[in-house]
Specification:
The complex is a heterodimer of chains A (248) and B (438).
Chain A: E1 4-17, E2 20-33, E3 37-42, H1 48-55, E4 63-68, E5 71-72, H2 78-88, E6 89-92, H3 104-110, H4 118-138, H5 154-167, E7 172-176, H6 184-201, E8 204-208, H7 212-216, E9 220-225, E10 228-234
Parallel strand pairs in A: 3-8, 3-9, 6-7, 7-8
Antiparallel strand pairs in A: 1-2, 1-4, 4-5, 9-10
Helix pairs in contact in A: 3-4, 3-5, 4-5, 5-6
Chain B: H1 2-12, H2 17-52, E1 56-59, H3 67-75, E2 80-95, E3 118-124, H4 126-132, H5 135-141, E4 163-166, H6 168-173, E5 181-192, E6 195-200, E7 205-212, H7 218-223, E8 224-228, H8 229-236, E9 244-249, H9 255-270, E10 275-278, H10 279-282, H11 284-322, H12 324-332, H13 337-378, H14 387-390, H15 401-428, H16 431-436
Parallel strand pairs in B: 3-8, 4-7
Antiparallel strand pairs in B: 1-9, 1-10, 2-3, 2-5, 2-9, 4-8, 5-6, 5-7
Helix pairs in contact in B: 1-13, 2-11, 2-13, 2-15, 11-13, 11-15, 13-15
The chains are: A alpha/beta (248), B alpha+beta (438).
Residues 48-49, 176 of chain A line the site of magnesium ion.
């Protein structure tokens, strides 16, 4: 197995709803290796998105630990976690989440600007812009660079979102149902793009999906049910259909 | 960097932010224009007061000090050009002639006192006044038909009766002509059981109108009646010595310093009750009240600023709510709390700075061109600054760079502070809530 990039140990997470505590994750262990693609399957409400947010340092677990390169990160300060998120993790969401006021090129650039000061930006403006343009070309959107999200199709928006995630050169991209809103043909194109990025750049992926066919294209498949990982195995050996998961 | 990029995009894609800009511009504009007119008015009134007040005035001298002694004491100072003793006394003016039925409209500040015949009798040493103060000019400024017969001795008795000089306005209002008789009932402060009581004399003093005088300050003219010092002193009996001495300074000297020197000399001679006040000290009350009104006006106008602040707060709050999802996206991309807050504070700051610049430019232009605008308005019978009320031909203004800097600085600071509230709310938002926000 590849060297572990991200390790989650016995993570629990519950949400307070009024007076009742709703346990969502009940002790999740998960490891993602460098350059590995992992599919996260599970019924709706199993806690996939919650786990993704914890791994992406957008939230803190109630218990357990998360390490990046053998370094614990779940107990870092908010600021340090923001830095880490910017430098090493990229997000791709089901609803693209682009900034509506910015055109495609600027949306991509934005991904590189989080820790760039004004003077630094003035110095590197050209370089950053060129990098964003190159990434747009890589996702096949050169002629859409000046379009705003509202003027783009769903698939095109997702490509912009992927380019934005790539510009900060992350080691891990967390994608929550990236094709959930797209027709199968467009979805296929997006997935081809993601797997090509994985091959060419060695970026690890954690893909939340409901699509078993997609899951089979990944290196590993992790299944969740009711806040627990019920199956974790190589895609080639694991049963790919939802119902065929062996009992825990 | 993304902060500036986003702030400008957010601003320019939302015309409603113009409302905040407009509000701040309006507040800054008003805070520049109105006080500038007050300051200009204060300056003009100051000029008028200065022209009708001696450079310095000596008060509190003991009775019976001959003016020649003072000449010697004060004349030693090179700043002093000359002295003119005065006897100032309050009285009620009764025009002996019945007032004409149709009075011409009252002018200026003396409109306020038009029905009140309270005047200041000013007993003067004519020779010295003509020599040292503005009296000669004031006599020549009066309409030719009202000027005294002998400009070098304007208060020469008429048929053996003491003479008086009045303003042309008062003469016109009371239907007085040269040679007419007037009566003045004077009052005195008496001590009764340790308390000061004001008594009116039973018998009035009688004068004949010898002519008119006209300074540039109608309020002064309307209130004063010039009479001969010796005559007034004789009529008053016991309190017969001058109660103030006007000091004319040489051109270009520091009046305040000279007044201080004189005060030291005179106090050494006559005790600590002697005071020498410069013209601005003497008029402190009047200038102070305009100044006070200016201060109040500023305070009232700051309310506009507060309203503008609320507008900015409201528009930014709306924007934060609208941009909830963007905040989540930024956080996911690695923006920290401060970064997100800065985006919205920068929006507020931009609104404030643009508003302040527009307000300053507009305010300065308005102040400078207000008079032209007023001239234009007069065609429609609207007058923002009636000559009748303010005695000024032009709308005065005085732009104070320090005040302009203060107004714009404070408005920007206040707006940024106000913007910080929704910005802080934005920054504290849970990124997950924000991302779920569809
Ligand atoms: N902020 C929250 N407050 C309360 N409950 C929450 C919160 N976030 C998630 N949950 C609950 O946690 C459970 C898991 O949610 P999560 O979004 O992780 O599921 P999921 O596996 O991603 O489902 P789906 O496939 O539908 O996206 C759900 O029951 C959800 O209602
Ligand atoms: Mg989900």
């Amino acid at each position: 197995m590849t060297t572990p990039l991200l390790e989650a140990r016995s993570i629990t997470k519950s949400f307070q709803l009024g007076r009742t505590e709703i346990p969502v994750l009940r002790g999740v262990d998960l490891t993602i290796g460098r350059g590995e693609t992992v599919a996260l399957l599970g019924t709706s409400g199993a806690g996939k998105s919650t786990l993704l947010h914890l791994l992406g340092l957008l939230d803190r677990p109630n218990d357990g630990s998360i390490s990046f390169d053998d370094q614990r990160v779940d107990d870092l300060s908010t600021k340090e976690r923001a830095r880490l998120r910017h430098r090493r993790i990229g997000f791709v969401f089901q609803f693209y989440h682009l900034i509506p006021e910015l055109d495609a090129l600027r949306n991509v650039q934005l991904g590189a600007l989080m820790d760039v000061g004004l003077w630094e930006w003035l110095g590197n403006r050209g370089a950053i812009k060129a990098r964003a343009a190159a990434l747009l070309e890589e996702v096949g959107l050169t002629d859409r660079a000046r379009h705003r999200p509202a003027e783009l199709s769903g698939g095109e928006r997702q490509r912009v979102a992927i380019a934005r995630a790539l510009i900060a050169e992350p080691e891990l991209i967390l994608a929550d149902e990236p094709t959930g809103n797209l027709d199968s043909e467009t979805a296929e194109g997006i997935l081809d793009l993601l797997f090509r990025i994985n091959r060419e750049r060695g970026i690890a992926f954690l893909l939340v999906t409901h699509d078993p066919a997609l899951a089979r294209r990944c290196d590993r498949i992790v299944r969740m049910r009711d806040g627990r990982v019920v199956d974790d195995g190589l895609a080639t050996t694991a049963p790919a259909t939802e119902g065929a998961a062996p009992p825990a | 960097m993304y902060r500036l990029l986003l702030a400008t995009r957010y601003l320019f894609s939302r015309p409603i932010n113009l409302l905040g800009v407009l509000g701040i511009a309006l507040g800054v504009w008003a805070l520049i224009v109105v006080p500038s007119i007050f300051t200009g008015y204060l300056r003009e009134v100051g000029k008028h007061l200065q022209s009708t007040t001696a450079d310095a005035t000596i008060r509190g001298l003991p009775g019976g000090v001959p003016i020649e002694t003072l000449d010697e004491l004060c004349g030693a100072d090179p700043a002093v050009a000359g002295l003119a003793p005065r006897l100032l006394w309050q009285g009620l003016l009764h025009p002996a002639a019945p007032p004409s039925r149709s009075r011409p409209p009252a002018r200026g500040l003396d409109e306020l006192t038009s029905e009140s015949p309270l005047v200041s009798l000013l007993g003067i040493d004519t020779t010295r006044e003509l020599h040292f103060t503005g009296l000669g000019g004031w006599l020549r400024a009066a309409p030719a038909e009202l000027q005294p017969k002998d400009l070098d001795d304007p208060l020469r008795p008429i048929d053996g009766e003491p003479a008086a000089l009045l303003s042309p306005q008062r003469m016109a209002r009371d239907g007085l002509r040269l040679g007419d008789r007037i009566a003045v009932t004077i009052g005195r402060l008496d001590r009764e059981d340790g308390e000061e009581v004001f008594h009116l004399d039973e018998k009035p003093l009688h004068f004949r109108v010898a002519g008119a005088f006209e300074s540039s300050f109608a309020a002064f003219d309307g209130l004063h009646v010039f009479v001969d010092l010796e005559t007034l002193a004789a009529r008053l009996g016991g309190d017969s010595s001058p109660n103030e001495v006007a000091v004319q300074m040489q051109h270009g000297v520091d009046t305040a310093q000279a007044a201080e020197r004189l005060e030291r000399i005179l106090q050494a001679e006559y005790g600590r009750r002697v005071r020498v006040a410069t013209w601005s000290e003497a008029n402190r009350l009047q200038l102070g009240s305009i100044d006070h009104q200016r201060g109040l006006m500023k305070l009232v106008l700051f309310v506009i600023m507060v309203v503008a602040g609320f507008v900015v707060y409201a528009t930014l709050s709306m924007m934060v709510t609208e941009k909830t999802r963007d905040i989540g996206i930024l956080t996911a991309m690695g923006a920290d709390v401060g970064g997100v807050a800065t985006v919205f504070v920068a929006c507020g700051a931009a609104v404030a700075v643009i508003g302040a610049v527009v307000g300053v430019v507009g305010g300065c232009l308005s102040a400078v061109y207000l008079d032209d605008f007023n001239t234009f308005l007069r065609r429609f019978d609207i007058d923002l600054f009636p000559v009748r009320v303010y005695n000024l031909r032009r709308v005065p203004y005085d732009l104070d760079p320090l005040w302009i800097a203060q107004v714009s600085g404070i408005s920007v600071l206040v707006t940024v502070a106000v913007a910080a509230i929704p910005a802080w709310r934005a920054a504290r938002q849970d990124p997950l809530d924000a991302l779920r926000h569809e």
